[in-house]
# Entry
Amino acid sequence: MSAELWARAERLRAEIREFCRTTLPSDILHKSSQHLMLTKEEYVRWMRSLQSRGWGVGHWPREYGGLAWSALERFVFEDELGRAGCPWVIPFGVKYVGPVIYTFGTEQQKRRFLAPIVSTDEWWAQGYSEPGAGSDLAGLRTAAERDGDYYIVNGQKCWTTYAQWADWMFCLVRTSRDERAQNGISFLLIDLRSPGVVVNPVRTMDMCHHVNEVWLDNVRVPVENRVGEEGGGWKLAKFLLVNERTYGSGVGESCFALGRLKALAAEMSCGVRSLGEHAAFRRRIDELELRVLVLETVSYQVLTDMLSGREAGAEASMLKIRASEVYQDLIEATVDALGYAGVAYDPQTLHGEGPPLLGPSDAGGILHYHLYNRAATIYGGSTEIQRNIIAKSVLGLPS
Ligand SMILES: Cc1cc2nc3c(=O)[nH]c(=O)nc-3n(C[C@H](O)[C@H](O)[C@H](O)COP(=O)(O)OP(=O)(O)OC[C@H]3O[C@@H](n4cnc5c(N)ncnc54)[C@H](O)[C@@H]3O)c2cc1C
# Structure
């Protein structure tokens, strides 16, 4: 890593710290650091506050409004936000479909879609998974049949995060059944206000509404909303998945969670001593801290490789497994540290209405967060699938 690159990233780190202290809307930081549910309006305000510095699309090329960040700056950005307890950067527009459109889209698609992604005037959802097509994505069955200048789309998507708020959904559809499964897939941009689209809520085990099923019944989608060639969607789908997996090591969030856990261990009493003074709990925290340090070290190794032009393959899978597991364990330890207060659950408090039933002020959101986080080892490619990728790479088998 060159000294200049490092210095630039450290300048960005200082600016982000300053921004989190002085500019970031405090109501939003308060809710996210206590794991409460943000509304769409709050997420939009959050994304726009990042974009007021150009950071929402800092990793985009300058010609499309970005800051042409290096992989290191991109990492530092997410790392610092995580360390401050900020909400996640909603990825569907800025990280997922935006780069697909500026890399593979037509000039008309770039003019139409990129600006509202930058300004968060349009909210996007990801329409990849279907019943029977999650890990085995190429098994998807949602069909798009050509009718003149339109595709007629029929099928069902599932687990579609925040589709209840979305204006558009980028969607993998099957445009041909005659060939190898991957070859018959196309990448469509679907206006979710089109007739024939129905979005139904699905409650996850925290009893909250994060995900949906999206039904598509004879939905007419203009052919001009297809990105890339007909039947060429698999290449775009994979491009997007690499972006999804490579930058998600979540070191910052883990550091924030670790800090909170240590503070709680000092705060909560257990018998005549604080919880942190008990050897067994102390050891649990120490082990977690070591795992976070290892995650951070490996993240920088992967970044160094990426900066010297090597693609993150099996290493990205290793980071995905380690990051999601350590984070789940940190939140589980926090629930344990809170004792009774950790399991008192009132969905109303998640929306910031009223104090938690029991315990410190951030106890109200923790159980919901713990339960929802079980999904971290499933979405973005489940742990078993990541292990398959690592095994194939180690054994030199075709991927
Ligand atoms: C909270 C949440 C939000 C999500 N948001 C979105 C979204 O916005 N858009 C979207 O498109 N999708 C979304 N997903 C879907 C997610 O990508 C899929 O759940 C994931 O890809 C797994 O697919 P599946 O659920 O169909 O499970 P399956 O693929 O049926 O897998 C079931 C189990 O079998 C294991 N398994 C499967 N194949 C293999 C294999 N070859 N070897 C070993 N083990 C295997 C898996 O690891 C898993 O444990 C979301 C999921 C969750 C839980």
